[in-house]
């Protein structure tokens, strides 16, 4: 009698374990993808000096949707997305969107080389020495891209090379309303 | 062409395994000795076929045959020959082949080693082992095929991960697999005896020996893995509680629990069901560990890429559990223990508590490792569970375990006389408590340190006393100043006869040596700084002088070395050469550490960055007592070998009886 | 003698390394960095990592400490930005209690059940005289047996 209880308990525990593993294999998110804690929160303000010497701050773009991209010249996926962001910039900046690229853990020289090589022309600026901006945005790896709406609220974040579709969908939506 | 032969060999091997299962089953059902005999020989041919396919893969590595996907992904033409040979287990598919290679070797050994002494159980055990082998081979010919072709054939391979180009990492996986796979043998014998439906203690003897073998390899494998992490990963530590590391620790913990509780079964004829459960748990945990390593479900440094073999392993785990527990449930009456008298404070109960602790530790590791999944499933949040969590839960359990280690030997079976207990405990426990109080007052260390050190002292005293007593050979010789030859002979004989006991005492001593290594952590010291050639920095007792940067070529990498002169008390003691290694096949440079080792402490240096202006940022760690960790492996190995060299009288007399029969 | 060796060894262990005193701020930075995971690596803390981001985090911890922030505030600073995920050992509250309490509770309950079972067993199986104080003769006998056992 007593032993049956133990066997039953054991079986339930094992079913739980198997269920958990099943969940892990089929339903759980990729352990490498990390959700941002900042979704639907107000984007933290920053003021930077761009590579061409202009001072910009996030606040001045209130009322416009912002694509905020973190990149570095040493990152491979950044090369892949470079022309994608540039193309989106050419298309949507005239319609009222804002594109900002913050370079992190990069030397000025390498950043400039990268900009020239890929013909980037949107607002590009280096992060400060400590990386305050990237830390405020909880960057885990480059590239990461934040989609900030007109009210200055972060709506999405992508890790890895950003896709043209995701920007298009977001910006069309924002610019139409 | 040759590659195809290797693949066909795998196909033939799986056929032979299947044949072995069928022939064995038929032989048992029809009670036909020839069929059983034939199933034993089938095992031998499986082994040869797997060996062929293993050597074919090795050959493909040596000849840079990049038409094999696995070779293209894990080798390159500039790889040294040695690493080409060992590259076979540098990735998932190849290491699974190594796994099967070892398993089929074990099965072949079993089939011929135990066909006389365990005649009755062997056919059943072989069926169980063949089923396991069948599953692995099934993976190998399908989802995880190491000999799969890559079209078009690339001219150059992607290269072996530079982290794996280290002697420690070369030895570590085979050792670990020898342990992991070794656990399948005790499991097969346990299940075999249940299948047979008649229980004697034969299974416990074989199971115990093979668990010891597996335990030895697991221990050595983990030690080697720690050593690898220490010299290769460059963060100054050796154990990170990473899911993959945990998955080798869990079966180790349950195997340790079994090795203790089987003593109770042997001496007191109880805990039989419990021991079956432990053997099963150990085996399932090795498969679960493989699942964790290979399915990509959990985040880990060592994990292979996410792969489709996860679901297959999951099904395998479910099958094993259903089969084992179902069988155990049906046969539980066979395992009824005799009702034994036992006092509350007795050796039986001490072993019981030992088991609760070891299984508790295994559970904690499993729970902590899988909890991120639970958190995501139930609370929809991502958590990280890393070293600080494990350390804080495991420390109290370790303290209790070490306390038991010092206590159990002085408890009697059935019951313990108070006088005896007082006699053996009084001195070590009072001095131990005094030591702890003194430590707490003078040192600025966390409570865990005080308790670990105190218990270590207590257990150390007891274990050494036990060893000394064993060498002296009991009380009698104490009074006599000299011993005659006869007595000496007797003493040596009894020492040899008791080598299992002495072996375990040596292992326990090893645990304490290990503990000293861990305690050293609490006094560790680290710093990191940027300096220019010619600069000097002081770290602890050492002065580190940056001589120059040096560029060189080594093997298949470009090295940038930071040459450091180390001074202590004004004396030049050594030069250290930490470096960054740039491999053509890898974008990130690798950190090559350089260590000045002494028994008291290691001076461990690694390069963080080499800056454009000629300066270098280096990390310097002082790791006190860390070498005790590696030294302890020596105790574990010697102790286990002593235990293994002992053959129980039961086993011997069994073999003798069989010989007489024959 | 043996005791002396032991005490000596342990005292050596205790005192040999207490002399090291590093820059206090450095140590504080390390202590906090050790509680945060390195976002780009696995298994390692910010302290142990050499990744660029981890360096930034260390610098940030330092500057926050210099501003007079407490350890708790600094950890919260990172949790706010990275989520709970950044902590290497989850906070002891809410759902996470399930993580922290389950192993201890299970082990404790098992011990409790075993204790009562074994006490039951010891009462029912041991003969009454075993519970009464033993006389000299019996004690001597048991001791002899024990020594035999020790030798085996």
From TrEMBL, chain B:
<feature type="transmembrane region" description="Helical">
    <location>
        <begin position="121"/>
        <end position="143"/>
    </location>
</feature>
<keyword id="KW-0472">Membrane</keyword>
<dbReference type="GO" id="GO:0005886">
    <property type="term" value="C:plasma membrane"/>
</dbReference>
<feature type="transmembrane region" description="Helical">
    <location>
        <begin position="41"/>
        <end position="62"/>
    </location>
</feature>
<feature type="transmembrane region" description="Helical">
    <location>
        <begin position="210"/>
        <end position="229"/>
    </location>
</feature>
<feature type="transmembrane region" description="Helical">
    <location>
        <begin position="163"/>
        <end position="189"/>
    </location>
</feature>
<feature type="domain" description="Cytochrome c assembly protein">
    <location>
        <begin position="89"/>
        <end position="295"/>
    </location>
</feature>
<feature type="transmembrane region" description="Helical">
    <location>
        <begin position="6"/>
        <end position="29"/>
    </location>
</feature>
<feature type="transmembrane region" description="Helical">
    <location>
        <begin position="505"/>
        <end position="523"/>
    </location>
</feature>
<comment type="function">
    <text>Required for the biogenesis of c-type cytochromes. Possible subunit of a heme lyase.</text>
</comment>
<dbReference type="GO" id="GO:0020037">
    <property type="term" value="F:heme binding"/>
</dbReference>
<keyword id="KW-1003">Cell membrane</keyword>
<feature type="transmembrane region" description="Helical">
    <location>
        <begin position="628"/>
        <end position="646"/>
    </location>
</feature>
<dbReference type="GO" id="GO:0015232">
    <property type="term" value="F:heme transmembrane transporter activity"/>
</dbReference>
<feature type="transmembrane region" description="Helical">
    <location>
        <begin position="393"/>
        <end position="413"/>
    </location>
</feature>
<protein>
    <submittedName>
        <fullName>Cytochrome C biogenesis protein</fullName>
    </submittedName>
</protein>
<dbReference type="InterPro" id="IPR032523">
    <property type="entry name" value="CcmF_C"/>
</dbReference>
<keyword id="KW-1133">Transmembrane helix</keyword>
<dbReference type="Pfam" id="PF01578">
    <property type="entry name" value="Cytochrom_C_asm"/>
</dbReference>
<dbReference type="InterPro" id="IPR003568">
    <property type="entry name" value="Cyt_c_biogenesis_CcmF"/>
</dbReference>
<feature type="domain" description="Cytochrome c-type biogenesis protein CcmF C-terminal">
    <location>
        <begin position="314"/>
        <end position="645"/>
    </location>
</feature>
<keyword id="KW-0997">Cell inner membrane</keyword>
From TrEMBL, chain C:
<dbReference type="Pfam" id="PF03918">
    <property type="entry name" value="CcmH"/>
</dbReference>
<dbReference type="GO" id="GO:0005886">
    <property type="term" value="C:plasma membrane"/>
</dbReference>
<dbReference type="GO" id="GO:0017004">
    <property type="term" value="P:cytochrome complex assembly"/>
</dbReference>
<keyword id="KW-0732">Signal</keyword>
<protein>
    <recommendedName>
        <fullName>Cytochrome c-type biogenesis protein</fullName>
    </recommendedName>
</protein>
<keyword id="KW-0479">Metal-binding</keyword>
<keyword id="KW-0201">Cytochrome c-type biogenesis</keyword>
<dbReference type="InterPro" id="IPR051263">
    <property type="entry name" value="C-type_cytochrome_biogenesis"/>
</dbReference>
<feature type="signal peptide">
    <location>
        <begin position="1"/>
        <end position="22"/>
    </location>
</feature>
<dbReference type="InterPro" id="IPR005616">
    <property type="entry name" value="CcmH/CycL/Ccl2/NrfF_N"/>
</dbReference>
<dbReference type="InterPro" id="IPR038297">
    <property type="entry name" value="CcmH/CycL/NrfF/Ccl2_sf"/>
</dbReference>
<comment type="similarity">
    <text>Belongs to the CcmH/CycL/Ccl2/NrfF family.</text>
</comment>
<comment type="function">
    <text>Possible subunit of a heme lyase.</text>
</comment>
<keyword id="KW-0472">Membrane</keyword>
<feature type="transmembrane region" description="Helical">
    <location>
        <begin position="97"/>
        <end position="116"/>
    </location>
</feature>
<keyword id="KW-1133">Transmembrane helix</keyword>
<dbReference type="GO" id="GO:0046872">
    <property type="term" value="F:metal ion binding"/>
</dbReference>
<keyword id="KW-0349">Heme</keyword>
<keyword id="KW-0812">Transmembrane</keyword>
<feature type="domain" description="CcmH/CycL/Ccl2/NrfF N-terminal">
    <location>
        <begin position="20"/>
        <end position="142"/>
    </location>
</feature>
<keyword id="KW-0408">Iron</keyword>
């Amino acid at each position: 009698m007593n032993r049956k209880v133990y066997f039953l308990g054991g079986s339930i525990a094992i079913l739980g374990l198997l269920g958990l593993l099943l969940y892990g294999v089929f339903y759980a998110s990729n352990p490498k993808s990390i959700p941002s804690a900042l979704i639907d929160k107000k984007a933290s303000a920053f003021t930077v000096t761009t590579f061409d010497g202009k001072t910009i701050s996030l606040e001045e773009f209130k009322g416009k949707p912002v694509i905020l991209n973190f990149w570095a010249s040493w990152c491979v996926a950044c090369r892949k997305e470079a022309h994608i962001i540039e193309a989106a910039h050419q298309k949507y900046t005239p319609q009222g969107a804002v594109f900002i690229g913050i370079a992190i853990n990069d030397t000025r020289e390498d950043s400039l080389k990268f900009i020239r090589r890929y013909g980037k022309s949107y607002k590009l600026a280096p992060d400060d020495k400590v990386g305050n901006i990237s830390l405020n945005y909880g960057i885990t790896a480059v590239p990461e891209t934040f989609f900030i709406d007109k009210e200055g609220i972060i709506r999405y974040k992508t890790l890895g090379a950003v896709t043209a579709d995701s920007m298009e969908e977001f910006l069309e939506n924002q610019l139409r309303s | 062409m040759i590659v195809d032969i290797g693949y066909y060999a795998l196909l033939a091997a799986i056929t032979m395994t299947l044949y072995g299962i069928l022939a064995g089953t038929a032989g048992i059902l029809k009670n036909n000795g020839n069929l059983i005999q034939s199933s034993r020989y089938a095992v031998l041919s499986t082994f040869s076929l797997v060996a062929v396919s293993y050597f074919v893969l090795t050959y493909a590595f040596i000849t840079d045959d990049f038409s094999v996907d696995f070779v293209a992904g894990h080798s390159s033409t500039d790889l040294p020959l040695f690493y080409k040979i060992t590259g076979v287990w540098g990735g998932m598919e190849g290491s699974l082949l190594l796994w099967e290679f070892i398993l089929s070797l074990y099965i072949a050994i079993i089939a011929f080693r135990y066909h006389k002494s365990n005649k009755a159980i062997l056919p059943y055990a072989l069926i169980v082992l063949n089923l396991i082998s069948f599953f692995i081979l099934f993976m190998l010919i399908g989802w995880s095929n190491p000999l799969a072709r890559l079209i078009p054939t690339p001219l150059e391979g992607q290269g072996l991960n530079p982290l794996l180009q280290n002697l420690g990492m070369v030895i570590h996986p085979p050792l670990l697999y020898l342990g992991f796979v070794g656990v399948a043998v005790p499991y097969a014998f346990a299940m075999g005896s249940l299948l047979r439906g008649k229980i004697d203690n034969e299974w416990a003897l074989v199971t115990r020996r093979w668990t010891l073998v597996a335990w030895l390899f697991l221990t050595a494998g983990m030690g080697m893995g720690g050593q690898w992490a220490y010299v290769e990963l460059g963060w100054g530590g050796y154990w990170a509680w990473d899911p993959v590391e945990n998955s080798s620790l869990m079966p180790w913990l349950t195997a340790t629990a079994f090795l203790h509780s089987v003593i109770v079964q042997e001496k007191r004829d109880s805990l039989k069901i419990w021991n079956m459960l432990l053997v099963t748990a150990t085996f399932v945990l090795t498969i679960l560990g493989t699942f964790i390593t290979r399915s990509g479900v959990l985040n880990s440094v060592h994990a292979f890429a996410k792969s489709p073999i996860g679901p297959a392993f999951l099904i395998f785990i479910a099958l094993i559990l259903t089969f084992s527990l179902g069988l155990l449930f049906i046969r539980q009456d066979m395992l009824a223990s005799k009702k034994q008298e036992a006092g509350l404070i007795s050796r039986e109960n001490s072993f019981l508590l030992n088991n609760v602790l070891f299984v508790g530790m295994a559970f904690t590791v499993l729970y902590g490792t899988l909890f991120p999944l639970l958190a995501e499933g139930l609370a929809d949040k991502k958590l990280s569970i890393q070293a600080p969590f494990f350390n804080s839960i495991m420390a109290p359990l370790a303290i209790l375990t070490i306390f038991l280690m010092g206590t159990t030997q002085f408890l009697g079976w059935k019951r313990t006389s108070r006088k005896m207990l007082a006699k053996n405990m009084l001195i070590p426990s009072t001095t131990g408590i005094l030591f702890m109080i003194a430590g707490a007052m003078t040192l600025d260390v966390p409570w865990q340190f005080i308790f670990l050190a105190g218990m270590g002292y207590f257990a150390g005293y007891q274990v050494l006393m036990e060893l000394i007593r064993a060498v002296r050979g009991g009380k009698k010789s104490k009074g006599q100043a000299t011993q005659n030859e006869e007595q000496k002979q007797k003493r040596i004989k009894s020492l040899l006869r008791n080598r299992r006991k002495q072996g375990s005492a040596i292992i326990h001593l090893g645990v304490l040596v290990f503990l000293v290594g861990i305690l050293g952590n609490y006094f560790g010291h680290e710093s990191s700084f940027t300096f220019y050639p010619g600069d000097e920095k002081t770290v602890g007792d050492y002065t580190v002088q940056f001589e120059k940067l040096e560029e060189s070529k080594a093997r298949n990498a470009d090295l940038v070395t930071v040459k450091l002169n180390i001074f202590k008390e004004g004396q030049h003691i050594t030069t250290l050469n930490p470096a960054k290694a740039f491999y053509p096949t890898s974008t990130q440079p690798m950190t090559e550490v350089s260590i000045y080792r002494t028994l008291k402490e290691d001076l461990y240096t690694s390069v963080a960055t080499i800056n454009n202006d000629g300066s270098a940022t280096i990390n310097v760690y002082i790791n006190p007592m860390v070498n005790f960790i590696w030294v302890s492996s020596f105790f574990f190995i010697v102790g286990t070998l002593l235990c293994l060299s002992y053959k129980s009288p039961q086993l011997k007399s069994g073999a003798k009886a069989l010989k007489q029969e024959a | 003698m043996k005791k002396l060796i032991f005490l000596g060894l342990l005292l050596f262990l205790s005192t040999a390394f207490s002399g090291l005193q590093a820059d206090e701020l450095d140590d504080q930075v390390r202590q906090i960095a050790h509680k945060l995971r390195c976002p780009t690596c696995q298994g390692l803390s910010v302290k142990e990592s050499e990744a660029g981001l981890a360096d930034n985090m260390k610098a940030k911890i330092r500057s926050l400490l210099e501003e007079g922030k407490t350890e708790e505030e600094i950890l919260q600073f990172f949790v706010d930005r990275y989520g709970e995920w950044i902590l290497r050992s989850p906070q002891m509250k809410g759902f996470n209690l399930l993580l922290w309490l389950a192993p201890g509770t299970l082990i404790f309950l098992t011990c409790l059940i075993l204790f009562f079972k074994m006490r039951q067993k010891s009462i029912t199986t041991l003969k009454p005289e075993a519970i009464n104080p033993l006389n000299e003769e019996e004690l001597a006998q048991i001791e002899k047996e024990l020594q035999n056992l020790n030798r085996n």
